[in-house]
């Protein structure tokens, strides 16, 4: 297994039951949940169910999700997570999502974590294409996806009904051939 994936400030490895209190705490934060599929009523039992359903393999099988914890490598503090979705329709194509606890935002942590996950997917997992989508109003994630080299390819108007309203999604993607050179 390649985990933990390391970066200068971070260690990324599958979420464990020990992460539940910190994971639930940020999923219950109204600001963090605003553009996500869950809402602040998220409970420890929901997290336990999610963790129990995690794949034990390096990557999820087609259609499945793997939730990687973003941690402080020194003391294991959970900063947030990067989710990897193996798309079942297309060979070697993955979707990603990222979430940080509010106290860990604006420090470049998401950028560092997503850059490492993209490198892992394209080099170790031989991915061809990685995608991400977000509500058009979610400016921080748009900035992050652009910063890691992803391009906005399309916008889907009223693509989903979430939290009592129709939401419009921006779709981002990057190909293996577009991965920025390592510094
Ligand atoms: C999306 C999300 C992960 C982005 O987090 P973020 O911390 O803004 O993203 P980055 O890691 O790119 O950090 C960039 C910020 O860190 C600052 N920064 C500080 N040190 C830095 C460093 N060493 N390297 C890079 N940026 C650094 C940048 O200046 C920038 O600041 P700004 O936000 O004031 O402009 C975060 O907003 C979040 O968790 N939102 C809630 C969940 C969500 O909606 N997720 C998206 C669903 S797809």
Model description:
- This protein has one domain (about 5-180): Gcn5-related N-acetyltransferase (GNAT) (Aminopeptidase).
- Strand 7 and strand 8 (about 165-175) form a beta hairpin.
- It is of the alpha+beta class and about 180 residues long.
- It has helices at about 20-25, 30-35, 45-50, 110-125, 140-145; strands at about 5, 10-15, 65-70, 80-85, 95-100, 130-135, 150-160, 165-175.
- The model has no long low-confidence stretch (mean pLDDT about 95).
- It has an eight-stranded mixed sheet with strand order 1-2-3-4-5-6-8-7, with helices on both faces.
- Coenzyme A binds next to strand 5, helix 4 and helix 5.
- The site of coenzyme A has 20 residues, from strand 5, helix 4 and helix 5.
CATH structural architecture? 3-Layer(aba) Sandwich
Quaternary structure classification: single chain
Which stretches are low in confidence, meaning pLDDT under 50 for 5 or more residues running?
none
* CA-atom Rg in angstroms: 16 Å
State the helix count.
5
Strand pairing plus helix content: what structural class? alpha+beta
> What is the CATH class name?
Alpha Beta
Indicate the overall shape: globular
Number of domains: 1
Kindly state the number of beta strands: 8
Bound molecules: coenzyme A
Task: Tell me what portion of residues adopts beta-strand conformation.
Answer: 25-35%
User: Looking at CATH, which topology would you report?
Assistant: Aminopeptidase
CATH superfamily: Gcn5-related N-acetyltransferase (GNAT)
- Which bin fits the share of residues in helices? 25-40%
Order of the strands making up the biggest sheet: 1-2-3-4-5-6-8-7
| Order of H and E elements | EEHHHEEEHEHEE
Output mean pLDDT: 95
Distance between the termini: 25 Å
């Amino acid at each position: 297994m390649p985990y933990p994936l390391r970066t200068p400030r971070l260690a990324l490895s599958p979420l464990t039951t020990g992460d539940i209190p910190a994971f639930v705490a940020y999923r219950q934060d109204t600001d963090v949940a605003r553009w996500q599929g869950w809402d602040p009523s998220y409970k420890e039992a929901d997290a336990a169910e999610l963790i129990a359903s995690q794949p034990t393999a390096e990557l999820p099988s087609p259609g499945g999700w793997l939730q990687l914890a973003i941690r402080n490598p020194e003391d294991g503090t959970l900063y947030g997570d990067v989710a990897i979705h193996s798309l079942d329709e297309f060979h070697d194509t993955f979707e990603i999502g990222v979430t940080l606890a509010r106290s860990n935002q604006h420090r470049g942590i998401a950028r560092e974590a997503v850059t490492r996950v993209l490198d892992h997917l394209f080099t170790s997992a031989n991915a061809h294409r990685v995608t991400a989508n977000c509500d058009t109003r979610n400016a921080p994630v748009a900035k992050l996806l652009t910063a890691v080299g992803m391009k906005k390819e399309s916008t889907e108007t009223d693509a989903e009904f979430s939290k009592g309203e129709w939401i419009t999604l921006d779709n981002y993607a990057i190909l293996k051939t577009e991965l920025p050179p390592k510094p």
